[in-house]
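Standup notes, structure subgroup. Blocker cleared on the 5-O-phosphono-beta-D-ribofuranosylamine input:
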Amino acid sequence: MNIVLLGSGTGSNAKAILEKQTQGLLGKARVTGIITDNPTARILTLGDSYHVPAIHIPSGPFKTKLTPEVEQTYVDHIRAWSADLVVLAGFMRVVKETLLNAFPGKIINLHPSLLPKYPGLHSVQRAFDAGEKECGCTVHYVNAVIDGGDIISQSRVRIEKEDTFTTLMEKVHAAEHTLLPEAIRKLSLEFR
Ligand code: GRF
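Run returned:
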């Protein structure tokens, strides 16, 4: 099962996926490409380290989404890399019709909350500020509703009294680095 990763920033989750692949722990999944909307994103550097093509595609005039034309360029690259699954690993743009229609039911996202709680931005901060006893992360299918698609898997993180926002973020990231590769591994074993 070929997967293409889309990300906008650090790429720690993309790195976790590539590490599992290197260790032979990603089932039948194999990363065939990485795309970013951010020319300075660290995720780009993973391409060289893991011998995977990694490219920047300029994102167009909007901050939170891509134009249909830019989305079509994404589609063309994703198809050229024969993707069976598209994984949003810290991709900070809302995915619109051109991408959704090109890969129906084949785009998954990682979100740092226990959805349906705290969709959208700053989820960990909002859970922390609300005095929640737990938060976590979710892998879900992507549809036209932001962070609203069917849930694939979740990981819970307890919020302890001594936690600060920073320690909580570290715990959520650690949970993500296990959850997302494991979700991909399981999907790859079901893939025909
Ligand atoms: C993660 O916290 C993920 O849940 C969110 O964006 C962040 C990406 O981090 N969607 P990284 O770029 O993988 O380090």
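Discussed briefly. The CA atoms of residues 96 and 144 lie 7 Å apart.
Next: hand off to the docking folks.
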